Amino acid sequence: MNRDEGKQILLLYRNPADAQDPQIAEALELAKADTELSRWFENHCAVQNALREKFRAIEIPVALKEQIVSEQISNMKAKARREKFVAAGAITMIVAVLMVFGISYYSDHSKGRPPAPTLANYESDMLYYARPGYGMDLATNDLAQIKDHFTQTAAPADYILPAPLAQAAATGCAVKDWNGAKVSMICFATGRPLPQGLPGDLWLFVVDRAAVTDAPDSATPQISKINNVTVATWTENGKMYLLGVQGDEAMLRKYL
User: Fold this and answer.
1) How many whole angstroms separate alpha carbon 205 and alpha carbon 113?
2) Residue 161, C-beta contacts closer than 8 angstroms, at least 6 positions apart
3) Which residues pair with 234 in a beta bridge?
4) Fewer CB in a 10 Å sphere around the end CB: N or C, the chain?
5) For residues 226 and 162, what is the distance between their CA atoms, to the nearest angstrom?
6) pTM: predicted TM-score of the whole model, two decimal places
């Protein structure tokens, strides 16, 4: 069983009782030995727990029982029947919205399907990695150790940091797989108070230019905003760079 097969099986996991299933049990054992799969599985369980809490939070309308009994006694006039159908439709819509929430939470790679190798998908997936609670392969402020880790893991290590970024406080690094390409992720801290579970608030991702079909051709950073993260993308010496910070453009440019 490989990692993608394990993900497909673990998508069926809902509670500890599911571990009795032989296939799920095998996938759980694989997750214990596979760091990337283990992190993905933790996120999967967190989403399931969040969905359960949202379903539990749906309140039963006040006096619903009395309304149903009353309508049954009066044989439900035509207008009352229509209102009931509208109410049922509203409940169905609520359930559908919650299901969409759960489905949209996952990126394509969490379903075992690689995303199209576009810049938009690359940016989305890299910022997904940088969410609160992410883990680092190596926690260190030594940029030389970080580069050595990338060399040992066959991830891009011949990158060039912008001079201001090279002076920032590194907190660690990780290697990510994206569409068959290895991505070097370096985490930095800007010096602002960090939210709980967030090792850094400034991230650099480096990947081979060929891995992203519409990667920028210029070495001049292109600035954009994705939710609450400002990002810069550029290409230099065959590598595509993505730098993101939780802040505005002025803060991002301090590190370019």
Assistant:
1) 21
2) 143, 204
3) 241
4) N
5) 22
6) 0.56
Question: What are the two backbone dihedrals, phi and then psi, of residue 23, each rounded to the nearest 5 degrees?
Answer: -65, -45
Q: What is the pLDDT along the chain (256 residues), one digit of tens a residue?
A: 788 787 788 888 777 777 788 888 888 888 888 888 888 888 878 887 777 777 777 766 656 666 666 667 766 566 655 666 555 555 554 444 344 434 444 444 444 555 688 998 898 888 888 776 677 889 999 999 999 999 999 999 999 999 999 999 999 999 999 888 999 999 998 888 877 767 788 999 999 999 999 999 899 999 999 878 899 999 999 999 999 988 889 999 999 9
Residues 151 and 240 in one domain: yes
- In the DSSP assignment, the letter for residue 245 is E
What are the backbone angles phi and psi of residue 203, rounded to the nearest 5°?
Answer: -130, 140
CA dist list (Å): 55 to 11, 91, 104: 19, 11, 17
Are residues 56 and 126 located together in one domain of the fold?
Answer: no
Q: Are residues 106 and 84 in the same domain?
A: yes
Number of domain units in the chain:
2
Site of tokens 């910022």: 127
Torsion of CA 38, 40, 41, 46, to 10 degrees: 130
22 pairs with which residues across the strands? none
Residue-number span of the structural domain to which 120 is assigned:
115-253
Q: Name the residue with tokens 């090279």.
A: 166
Domain boundary among 113, 128, 163: 113
Q: What is the edge-to-edge ordering of all strands in the sheet holding 239-245? A: 169-178, 181-189, 202-208, 239-245, 229-236, 222-226
Q: Across the chain, which distance is largest between two alpha carbons, in Å?
A: 80
